[in-house]
Amino acid sequence: MNEPTGTGQISNPEGDRQFGAALLAGLLVALIVAGSAYFLMRGSSSGGPGNLAVLPMGSDEQAYASQIHFTNLEMGRAANFLKQEITTIAGVVRNDGPRNVVEMEVTLEFYDLSSKVVLRQKLRFYGVKEDPLAPNGKRGFQYSFEDIPNTWNQGAPGFNITGLRLQ
């Protein structure tokens, strides 16, 4: 069983293996948690990288923005495995105008009970990897947020189009 070593200590190979396995399992769990947290933060509320080109919002884009509508809004809240509150907003964006919407920036405004803005969050819709939103077309969307202040009134945010690239 346990054999004495030359240093006066007793060797326990089974205990050493158990410690090594526990250490390996702990490191694996830590890597999974860190990786999951990275992907949640990266994809949750930024709508994309912070170095995206500024979209135009001149008089043509401002006039066209009135032809884009956000409908069928659904909201949900849940806690993730890190016990953070995640708010999900889903809905449909409709292009009721005659042009393709190639890319769109939307600023969401979350309000408190006194109708003051407690959070502004910019999102990007579409882009080089997606097909444009066709005239009279509609497309679903879903975004998740984990940084909405507790003072938020739990109502739907305001959707303001702050950039458009049209075709």
Descriptive account of the structure:
Strand 1 and strand 2 (85-95) form a beta hairpin. This protein is of the alpha+beta class. The protein has a domain at 59-166: Immunoglobulin-like (Sandwich). It is 23% helix and 37% strand.
CATH class of the domain at 59-166: Mainly Beta
Average pLDDT metric: 80
Overall shape: elongated
How far is the first residue's CA from the last residue's CA? Answer: 79 Å
**Backbone structural class:** alpha+beta
How many DSSP helices?
Answer: 2
N-to-C SSE string, H for helix and E for strand:
HHEEEEEE
- Measured by DSSP, the beta-strand proportion falls in 35-45%
The total count of strands amounts to 6
Binned, the helix content reads: 10-25%
CATH topology of the domain at 59-166: Immunoglobulin-like
Spatial strand order of the main sheet: 1-2-5
CATH architecture of the domain at 59-166: Sandwich
Low-confidence runs: 40-49
> Cα-atom Rg, whole angstroms?
25 Å
The description of the largest β-sheet is: 3 strands, antiparallel
User: What is the quaternary state of this protein?
Assistant: single chain
Please specify the SSE layout and strand pairing:
Layout: H1 13-44, H2 59-65, E1 68-79, E2 85-95, E3 101-111, E4 117-126, E5 137-145, E6 158-166
Antiparallel strand pairs: 1-2, 2-5, 3-4, 3-6
Give keywords.
single chain; 167 residues; alpha+beta; 3-stranded antiparallel β-sheet; 6 strands; 37% strand
